[in-house]
Design goal:
It is a multi-pass membrane protein. InterPro entries: Cholcskin_rcpt (IPR009126), Gastrin_rcpt (IPR000314), GPCR_Rhodpsn (IPR000276), GPCR_Rhodpsn_7TM (IPR017452). Pfam families: 7tm_1. The chain has a single domain, classed as Rhodopsin 7-helix transmembrane proteins (Rhopdopsin 7-helix transmembrane proteins, Up-down Bundle), CATH 1.20.1070. The chain has 15 helices and 2 strands. Helix 3 runs antiparallel to helix 4, helix 4 packs parallel to helix 7 and helix 5 runs parallel beside helix 9. A two-stranded antiparallel ribbon has the order 1-2. By secondary structure, it is mostly helical.
């Protein structure tokens, strides 16, 4: 299982290590109030945020785009992670006993692995989909459809169910010596099998997805940066034209013949009139251009945040799991107490961070959220449909005449 679901399973005590039960129980802090508070906050934020995403994307048919289809799958997997992981980690930690029975020991381990796998695969699918839509917009339109997204999501879910089959097999409920308490732990037939398993998880669910996200979002950021440079160069063009006209006029006064000199006031007058008209007409265009630049900069910052948060949340956990598989005794000695609780907390926060990064930071999603819960009367519904239809028609009309760099803004801002 890529993330531990109870501290007993995290320690994974084996007879060969010689670690006593007290070292296992020391992973549970004495300050239960703080632990309950932190776990409860993460739990309610994760459940509330992901439920909002599911409701908004399900109710609003206009929001059912290709990217939003992947975001819906991500929200479902994160909701599953919060519901399955957090309670079954917190309650046994407080009671110092896995009270849910042997069957739940296997079921919970299996569902935890599935939820984490689907969440990671969804993040990778979103990264690839955004890269194709932004860096290869013309080619991506051919195959990026909702039916294709449904097939990809179905494949990721099936793959997660298959990959995590070893967890219900190796998960067992065992009774502690001289105690009525039980712990749910993984009992592998061979130490090499466990080591191979955790290395496989490190590669499939962390290293490879991390590299894919870095490459995809790095290429997207480069494309957006080129778009920013293109827009900045386009803004400098009018000033360069003005300077060119001025220099040409001044040069003509010195080197031109009499015929050119006699015509110069007329050309200067006409150019000044045209410049005044162009200044008035280019004011809204300049505002639009500045808005596009700011939007692209925000997207670049958001992509950096996505990659950084992925590594912050998951790297410590997978490193600890691999370390524990190879040297359980030293891992227990170094990570018991506050460190292991902090690592657990980081992994659980991914379920509440993803909704914030991918949806709640998006203006279009926030508007859809307000319309979903505030518009109950039929006139309001009519205005909502009309406003959304007008926005989509404007976006389609704009995208039809856009260059590649301008299209990236619509593609990224249209997500969610």
């Amino acid at each position: 299982m890529p993330m531990p679901y109870v501290h007993h399973c995290d320690c994974n005590i084996r007879a060969r290590t010689g670690v006593c039960v007290t070292e296992l129980l020391c992973l549970v802090g004495d300050n239960h109030t703080l632990m309950i508070l932190l776990y409860s906050v993460i739990f309610f934020l994760s459940v509330f945020g992901n439920l909002l995403i599911i409701v908004v994307l399900t109710v609003n048919k206009r929001m059912r785009t290709v990217t939003n289809t992947f975001l819906l799958s991500l929200a479902v997997s994160d909701l599953m992670m919060a519901v399955v992981c957090i309670p079954f980690t917190l309650i046994p930690s407080i009671l110092k006993d896995f009270i849910f029975g042997a069957a739940m020991c296997k079921i919970v381990a299996y569902l935890m692995g599935i939820s984490v796998s689907i969440s990671t695969f969804s993040l990778v699918a979103i990264a690839i989909e955004r890269y194709s839509a932004i860096c290869n917009p013309l080619k991506s339109r051919v195959w990026q459809t909702r039916s294709h997204a449904y097939k990809v999501i179905a494949t990721t879910w099936a793959l997660a169910f298959v990959i995590m089959i070893p967890y219900p097999v190796v998960s067992h409920l065992q009774r502690l010596d001289n105690s009525t308490a039980h712990l749910c732990r993984h009992k592998w037939p061979l130490a090499t099998a466990e080591q191979t398993w955790y290395i496989l998880l490190l590669l499939v669910l962390f290293a490879i997805p991390g590299v894919v996200m870095i490459v995809a979002y790095g290429l997207i950021s480069r494309e957006l940066y080129r778009g920013i440079q293109f827009e900045m160069g386009h803004k400098k063009a009018p000033s360069e034209v003005k300077n060119g006209l001025t220099s040409a006029v001044s040069t003509g006064s010195d080197d031109g013949d009499g015929c050119y000199v006699s015509q110069r006031p007329v050309s200067v007058e006409m150019s000044s009139i045209n410049q005044n008209k162009s200044i008035k007409s280019e004011r809204p265009r300049s505002n639009t251009s500045e808005a596009k630049l700011e939007a692209k900069k925000r997207v670049i910052r958001m992509l950096v945040v996505i990659v950084v948060m992925f590594f912050i949340c998951w790297m410590p956990l997978y490193c600890v799991n691999t370390w524990r598989a190879f040297d359980n005794a030293s891992a227990l000695q170094a990570l018991s107490g506050a460190p292991i609780r902090f690592i657990h907390l980081l992994s659980y926060t991914s379920a509440c961070i993803n909704p914030i990064i991918y949806c709640f930071m998006n203006t279009r999603f926030r508007k859809a959220l307000l319309l979903t819960f505030s518009c109950c009367a039929s006139p309001c519904r009519h205005r909502r449909r009309q406003s959304i239809r007008e926005q989509e028609e404007d976006a389609l009309a704009t995208a039809a005449s856009m260059s590649k760099f301008s299209y990236t803004t619509v593609s990224t801002m249209g997500a969610c």
